[in-house]
Amino acid sequence: MDEFDRKVIAAFPGKSVRKDLTALMKKGANVPTYVLEYLLGMYCATDDEETIKVGLEKIKRILSENYVRPDQSDYVKSKIKEEIMILNVSGRTDIIAFYTQWFLNRLDEGFVDVRNPFNPNLVSRINFNDIDLILFCTKNPIPIVNDLDKIPKPFLFHVTITPYKNDIEPYVPSKTKVIEAVKEISKQIGKENIVIRYDPIFISDKYPIEYHIKAFEKLLSLLNGYVNKIIISFLDEYKNVLKNKNILQYKTLTEKDYEQIGINFSAIAKNYNMTVQTCFEDRNLTEYGFIKEDCLFHELAYYLTGKKYKSWKSRKGEKCNCVEMVDIGVYNTCKHFCKYCYANYNENKVNNNTLNHNSNSSLITGTITDKDTIKVRKIWQNGNNMIK
């Protein structure tokens, strides 16, 4: 590999492909070239031969698990009607930070129950045998680091790390400890399976643009070699945000602010061979070098599971095209008490709900009663249509 090739790899992280590797992998593989090149860009876009070797083995495993020979067409047709589901753990609370033992107990039992937030006596039962993939979303992955081998399904991590102090995030643990946990998880599952979320971003006198740029640089320097992707978003004025406006003291972002964030964050990410993107934003900052991609995009879900999913129905018509997921969390159960949180809007309810938590219950908070109606949640694929 010459100097020009190295410059291309540095300039386009995750996008450059060695054609000799494409030819090598194509031999005997019943796979479209663009699929191979996508995987090579994801796992082998480097000049480090050892990393390439590991990446090629990973690609071979992905292909062996997700692609079949032409003579296996009947097998594929039978698989099309299988139940498929992606579990979100969780966008409503931080299950890993506060309820890891409960989650592990649910894995052992084989199912989890979730109350309908609009009809509390209607309970959805989700069987883990129906799950294809799990997305863990957390600010504190420390409690589960030593139990990853107990998770019987493919899984990804989205870990949120922000630079705010305890005036904004009163009970989020030391960011240094969280970063060490991220490194350990990356070692166990691969850096392509763990994403860092630097969100939400808000600007104030205490947390100006310059503060964020410096913090972003430090964060990526500490995670260099352990993650590939960073996702950012900007503060939204949820109910809890408006209630805490005097604490947050946030300012309206100007076009100049977006430009500074776009230019600086993009340059920093590029310097560490990472990509950066926005989540669910009007301003995706692609003009400054951000990539345009969904947080859990369809191609990634397909490569991990070999199955196709529809887009998130609850966000239809909005700016999100992530695959649909089933969230097993409950609002007003997160004890981080972040002042910008959308999922906590009543601290008294949080305290009551956590008091009612039983790690042996099928529910995060409370227990099943005689008044509850339990319905098994299933999502399956029939041809090209998803039926719920």
Structural class: alpha/beta
Instruction: State the strand order across the main sheet.
Output: 8-7-6-5-4-1-9
Strand content: 15-25%
Principal-axes shape call: globular
H-E string: HHHHHEHHEEEEHEHEHHHEHEHEEE
Could you tell me the radius of gyration in angstroms?
A: 22 Å
* Number of discrete helical segments: 14
The separation of the N and C termini measures 50 Å
Based on the coordinates given, report the CATH architecture of the largest domain. Answer: Alpha-Beta Horseshoe
Look up the CATH topology of the largest domain. Answer: pyruvate-formate lyase- activating enzyme
Helix content estimate: 25-40%
What is the CATH level 1 assignment of the largest domain?
A: Alpha Beta
Arithmetic mean of pLDDT: 87
Low-confidence stretches: 77-83, 381-388
Largest sheet: 7 strands, parallel
Number of strands: 12
* Count of discrete structural domains: 2
Describe this structure in words.
This protein is an alpha/beta fold. It has two domains: 3-67, no CATH class; 88-355, pyruvate-formate lyase- activating enzyme (Alpha-Beta Horseshoe). The chain is 36% helix and 16% strand. The chain contains 14 helices and twelve strands. The protein has helices at residues 3-11, 19-26, 33-43, 49-66, 73-80, 95-98, 100-109, 175-189, 209-222, 239-243, 245-248, 255-271, 298-305, 347-355; strands at residues 86-89, 111-116, 119-127, 133-138, 155-160, 194-201, 229-234, 275-278, 326-327, 373-376, 380-382, 385-387. Strands 8-7-6-5-4-1-9 form a seven-stranded parallel sheet. A three-stranded mixed sheet has the order 2-3-10. Strands 11-12 form a two-stranded antiparallel ribbon. Helix 3 packs across helix 4. The longest helix is centred in the first third of the chain and has 18 residues, at 49-66. It is globular. The protein starts with a helix and ends with a strand. Residues 77-83 and 381-388 have low confidence and may be disordered.
